[in-house]
Amino acid sequence: MSNDKEVPAATVVQDGKLGGDTPKTAAAAPRQPYKRKLSNFMLDKKLQLRYVMLVTVLSAMISGSLGYLIYHQRHQASASIDSDLAALTQSDASFSDVKNEVAEDNAHDDRMLVYKMAGVGIGLVLILSAYLVIMTHKVAGPLFKVSMYFDRMAEGRIGSVYGLRKGDMLQDFFGNFKEMHESVRTRMQADVISMESAADALRTKLANSPALEAMDKHLAQRKKQLL
Amino acid sequence: MAAPPNKGYKRSWKNLLINKRYQLRFTLFMVGLSALLMAGLGIWVMKEANDATSVAKSSIAGDACPKVPVITDTVNDDNSVPLKLDDGAAEPSGDAPVKMQHSAVDPKDVAHHNANDDVIAVQNAWCLDASCQPEQAAPLEIKMSTSARCNAYVKKKLTDPEAVAALRKALVPVVKCDGGDSFTVADAGAAAEPEREHHVKVQLDESSMTMMPAPAAAHVIPADYGERITAHWACVYRNEGKIADLETGRLRILWVLVITGLALVLGLAIYGIKMTHRVAGPLFKVSLYLAKMKDGRYDKVWNLRKGDQLVEFYEHFKAAHAGVVALERGDIEQMTALIAAAKEAGAGETEAVKDLEALVARKEKALE
User: Fold this and answer.
1) Can you give the C-alpha Rg of chain A in angstroms?
2) pTM
3) Between A46, A153, A180, which is nearest B294 by CB?
4) B335 contacts in A (CB within 8 Å)?
5) Could you tell me if B125 and B214 lie in one domain?
6) pLDDT for res B259
7) Environment class of residue A46 by beta-carbon count within 10 Å: exposed (0-12), middle (13-18) or buried (19+)?
8) With an 8 Å Cβ cutoff, are A54 and B30 in contact?
9) Which ipTM was obtained for this model?
10) Structural domain range at position B335
């Protein structure tokens, strides 16, 4: 049974981005530097949305509650002024215009305060959400990257590992992973060399042996996996 | 021997901060943002609350309370009663306020009237044969053609008791001659009546005296004085109570904000650390397995605790671990087959076979 078709091509990693498999052709065009895309910011929706929603909802609740308190206090003051003015101008109808004007001004100010607070609140939620998505992306990004390396390891591909992007978090964790990966890779490469030398030593005595042929294929596959 | 029952793992508080950089960053961001919002909006709330309290206080202060009724000393002329000693009016009862009536006679007129008779008497006694203008309680000046004649006239008159009595009644102290001598009225009596005894002659004439009502006795207390006093102070204390309530409300808002802010910050700090721990925990666990894999040990991978996050990520790791284990098993399988073939071919004692056996033993040990 041949495993050649199951073995993926060598991995090409550029600029810290797992580029996926590329055909091993000499004329392959140089890859464009990786650029972050807005659509890629939500790598781990569960992890990121949980934190984003928590902080955003919390901020919205604080802003909403305190905003309502601000409006309530302002409205109370306006109502008090209006009632006092009404009492003062009760005996003189000529002041009713002034009273109405002041009441309209107060109502307008109260409405504007609500609009301002609503605008600031919405702006805060939007900016905060965007910032938090970026912030959590700096955690989700390394996890995503390590997950992809894990997937390759699961497929038996122990290739090279490149570092994280500048600004990413979990650098320590990624360092641990990279050390492990390099250690496993180095050890497997050493094992391949040992197995290859043993197979070569036994080649004269095991000519045409299926076990030796299988070992040769195994070693060839392993070499590809360790590229 | 029976093994002791395995106690379930319990999270420890001291182990919550596994990945300080990650956990503190996210927790502090959350806490700091909340504190900033609470502080900023709290200051705004307090500013508005202070304004509203000031306006409400002004409104209360603007509500005028009923004034305290003033006890006036003004007496109504129609109801007042003059206290005339000789009128024989009935004395007022002790309890009822004294009502007095003013006299209809002007006191000036009374005095003027009383003085006129005396002056006329002096006029009749002294000014018929000489020129003079007598006045009450003033020196009497006599004018005649010569001073000598005037002196003689005055000396002669001062010997007349009726003329002297008229002077005394009009309180004239001195009689002067124009360009001549002055004669004291007090000396004239002695000169005129040396033989008579000195007796003070007192004559009581009819007179009247008006007594003005004493201010203390004239206070008029309104009928609703008590009600108005009660209403005034009830209003004052009610307003002061309202102002105190406003101040209490303002302080209550402040304390609620401070306590809520502190509770929020504290609660968020604890919750944030616990929440991030659910991420840091699996990462820590994976790091332990990574360390083992680095050392060439591929132990069995256990599942995450209930409630941990990064479950999918952990599944990726488990797959990777299984992949490496599969590689190792593949090596072992191929080497075992090769060793068996070599032994069948009589090459079991060669150095290559021994190396392969050692390699297989190491790999099998790594998989235990």
Assistant:
1) 34
2) 0.62
3) A180
4) 195, 198, 215
5) yes
6) 93
7) exposed
8) yes
9) 0.76
10) 296-366
